[in-house]
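User: Hello, can you help with two protein structures?

Assistant: Certainly.
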Amino acid sequence: MTRGRIFTFLAILALSTGVLTVFMTAHAAGDKPADPQSAGGREKILVCWGDIDTEDRFVGLFPENFPMPARVTKVLVKEGAEVKKGQPLLEFDNEQLNLKVREAENGIQAALAEQAKAEGAVRMHTVLVNEADKLWQAKHAILSSKQSELKEAERLFKLDIGNRLTLEAAQAAMREAELNSEAAKIKWEGLKVEVPNYYVDIAKENVKHKQTLKAQAEHARDLLACKAPADGTIIRSFVTEGANYGMQSREPAFWFLKKNPLIVRAEVTQEFAKGVSVGKSATITDDSDESLVWTGVVTKVGEQFLPKRHGGASILDLMPVSDDRVLECHVSIDTEPGKAGPKFGQKVRVTLR
């Protein structure tokens, strides 16, 4: 190789190295803010990266009874649909749970019948007390009659008009009358002392128990649902008819984004965090298209340095590959009539002044 060719090769290599250095320096702004002091020292600026997000981050929606088993019979919304709070998103096979509700309803009817039976027994008890009272009075009247007959038999026996057999028969009849009267009185007093209201109390508690079982069955049936937690948008759908959810399920049915104004969720490294404050004006530029530009203002600065997010603006990297920490700040987005705004999840560059 001639000396001239060697010099030419070295010149090309130096030029390539310079271009590569400039490119890498520019590319590094995606991970680290630019020097806050601009050229000439006339204006301090800070460049950082962020994603278009909302204050309320998107969430994954599972059936409300998750992780209990659930089989989807109908998908009611499509990806991108605008939904209202409480709007059903899925229908499920709930026949088994409906049977449980009907079973509980039948149990309540049976318990109410037992309660009516107990209340009837209490009313009947009053009749039995009155009956026992009358029976005791009748037995007492018979006793009085037998006592009179005995006295007459004793008088005649003393006058040698009556005989001993008549006297002994009168004495036996009076003792029988005494026992019958005493038994009737004991029965009457026993019925009068203890009214079986506890049968009614037991029956009422059984009714409450059956009503609780019904409420549990209805709650389990009502949990077999998937509804919009707020007004918002279905940004991603993963569910199809016939899908089964249970302990093994890991993927949600939908990704849901609550209806809120879009913001930029930007990240600033610890080195330049002191240059960020609420009220700073911001220029927001699309990551891949310099012609898409918006303006805004810093509205919130985080209180903690946390690992960078990954997989989108709403997922925090709890197992980062490096020990880098960033300070998160929120930037509002000014919208202009007739001009398209950014979209959720869009990666942008934020210049703070």
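That covers the first. Now for the second protein you mentioned:
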Amino acid sequence: MLQQNHVSIKDFKPISIIGDGSFSNVILAKKLDTGELTAIKIVKKETLTTDHLKEQIQMELEIFSTSDNPFITPLYYAFQDSDNLYLSLKYCPGGELFNLLGKQNFFTEEVARFYAAQVLLALEYLHTKNYVYIDLKPENILIDSNGYIKLTDFGLSRRLKNGIAGHNPSGTLEYMSPEMFSGNGYGIATDWYALGCLIFEMITGNPPFRSQNQEKLIDKILTQEPNFPTNMSKSLIDLLKKLLNKDPKSRL
């Protein structure tokens, strides 16, 4: 839960860099008065050169500061100085689900079910608040000290307006829903498609559609059906077919 106490970066002792991106980086730090570990996302103000980028950080702050769900990363403090914006978030020592999946190559259906159920509850919560997450992928799912997931990174999330979250493709291409390329807008159903992609990748080690060529990948998303492994259970295949339905109105 966001705390209102006035703090600055001087109240924290940096320990290490745990994430690095184009517009921000994340450091592991210790709060000096309590000794509590926190992950601090540092956004350089000079990189916020467009209204779109400013809207992204505002949306992320809005969701982090108002969310009350056990599977969404808690925000402790938000503050700034002349150069940077800072978001002090719960530190998740288990790292990204992406790294765990990379080490194990794939999960059993039981393990995938454990993580997918938590992601579902986080998405369902966001939808009740009229947000569409949009950028679901293993890199945006953290694992806390108890082994449970925490959804993070809401920079691409959007608020629903008349059932529509956006009209232009957004997110990670392998996880984009077919309706993102229609020009007619997309809404909550795009998150359920992405959940299908996530479950498929957890089970097989890869998303349902892949290609080094962007146009070919988009064509696969629009026209092809996933190739389900022979050892996948019938109930899981049935679930994935319903989540990966190309028609958002018919999608589970």
